[in-house]
Amino acid sequence: MILPTEKEILKKALTEKNVRFLAQLYFNVILTPLQQLIVRKIVFEEHRRLNISAMTRFGKSFAVAIGISLFIILNKNRKIYFIAPQIEQSMILRDYLGGLISICPAMIDILELTAQKEERLTVQKSRAHQTFKNGCEYRVFTAHDEADSLMGHGLGNEGGIIIVDEACKIKNEAYTKILRMLGDNPEKSTLIELYNPWTKDCKAYDHSLDPDFFHLRITWEDALREGRTTQEFIDKQRTELTKLEFDILYESKFPDQAQDALFDMSKVELCIQDKDRPRTLDFSSPWLIISCDVADKGIDKTVIMVGKQNKETRNYIVNEIYSEDISENTHIAGKINSLILQNRFNYEKIIVCIDRIGVGVGVLSMVNEFVKQNYLSAQIVGCHFGETPQDTNRFSNKKAEKYFKLKDLFEKNMISIPKHKTLLKELTSMSWGLNSRSRITIIDPDKSPDFADALCYFTWGEDVYSGGGYISV
Fold first, then answer.
1. Are 204 and 321 in a shared domain?
2. 331 lies in a domain?
3. Per-residue pLDDT tens digits for 358-413
4. N or C terminus of the chain: which is more exposed, having fewer CB within 10 Å?
């Protein structure tokens, strides 16, 4: 029996597109079935537009690096560009590629070395631009902000591959420049998008709906089937992550809200009350709530909210919202005092929540003095976002804690608000993140969210004035 030669074996593998064999031959790596699919699409250019989301840690970036390495070995005069929002993210794929080069004699043979022999591979593996003797080359780019650094670079007539990592985090303006880089012959160029589906406000989401793209979504169930994770690990992640985080990272699903959005606006919409959609929350045992966010020297708006809280169920309803651009402390305090007087016999308890940051301190003091002098039973609450939260392990400050309380009220349908355009716009714009100590922090929009802050004060709770200061009860 005549055994096939190595050349014949390789030819057969290429004819059959047997990337499992090729990866093992060149890199001693055994690919899972879905990794093989990714590699085959890249090496044999089966699709020119790839849209790939995968469970975190599945190994999609490594599979792409294998595909790019084989692509370089099997082609001539082709360009490969790695692009990500930050240079460190772009380097992830480059690092994978550098590691594969160092263990593959076929790649070392075609590598154009610029360093001394003894340090050649160490130096080459860290380069952001590498050329090969067969005319192929790769470059690493960043698409930070509007990605002006991408201007002037393109794949040229021979075409090549652009890999966009963390594609959901690249601004639309920057992505337009990336698409221009496909060159003078885009039909010979391949675009590969890799991402976790953090937000729908991106080109990657648009392309996930585009029939011209090949779509591959790899979930934890796929990863479990291919031995890339365990059921025990997945079960643990379910308990440690929010549903939103789990859906993004392990279900590879685009969220209905941005990953860092504070409020799920679909839940907020259900809590809106207007003449066409009355709410039926129970307010049979109401307390009157008045809240006020005081404008700082007329730069922002002063906002006053009036409504009720059920002392039993702790439901909230905002009935009225007042706002004005230019406010004088005495005028604001007088308005709040009038509301207290008008309602002093109608409620078992009146709670007045006023911010005590900056100019708010003056209003708070005037209202408190008025209540004391007139022997009124209103409870005055001073609200300060910068104070220490009760749950110091989770929240960075009182603002984060109280805003997450408001978030919880919306999600549990325990609050009713008017259909107020500015308030809803501000709620949409609020976001959150983690500080350096992994505590939750609130990120305001560019313009001060006066209405959202007033609503947060409205649901603040009872930080009671005690003469010399305020205590939480």
1. no
2. yes
3. 888 999 999 999 999 988 889 999 999 999 999 998 899 999 999 999 999 999 99
4. N
